[in-house]
Amino acid sequence: MFDADRLIARHCCEGRSLLAVLHAIQDEAGFIPPEVVTPLARAMNLSRAEVHGVLTYYHHFRTSAPPRVGVALCRAESCRSMGTEALAAHIEARTGCRFDAKHADGTNHGHTAEGAPVELESVYCLGQCALSPAMTINGTLHAKVTPAKFDALFEAACTQAGIEPAHKESV
Amino acid sequence: MNSQAGTPPSAVRIFVPRDSSALALGADALAAAIEAEAARRGVAIELVRNGSRGLLWLEPLVEVQTSAGRVGYGNVEAADVAALFDAGWLDGGGSTHARAVGLVEEIPYLKRQQRLTFARLGLADPLSIDDYLAHEGLVGLKAALAMDGDAAVEALIESGLRGRGGAAFPAGIKWRTVRAAQAAQKYIVCNADEGDSGTFSDRLSMEGDPYGLIEGMIIAGVVTGATRGYIYVRSEYPHAIAMLNAAIERAREAGWLGASVLGSGHAFELEVAKGAGSYVCGEETALLESLEGKRGIVRAKPPVPALAGLYGQPTVINNVITLATVPVIFARGAAYYRDFGMGRSRGTLPFQLAGNILRGGLVELAFGVTLRELIDEYGGGTASGRPARAVQVGGPLGTYLPESQWDIPLDYEAYAAVGAVVGHGGLVVHDDTSNLAELAQYAMHFCAIESCGKCTPCRIGSTRGVEVIQRIRNGDTSDKQVQLLRDLCDTMVSGSLCAMGGMTPYPVRSALDHFPEDFGLRAEPKAAAA
Question: Closest partner residue to A129 among B290, B428, B434, by Cβ?
Answer without folding.
Answer: B428
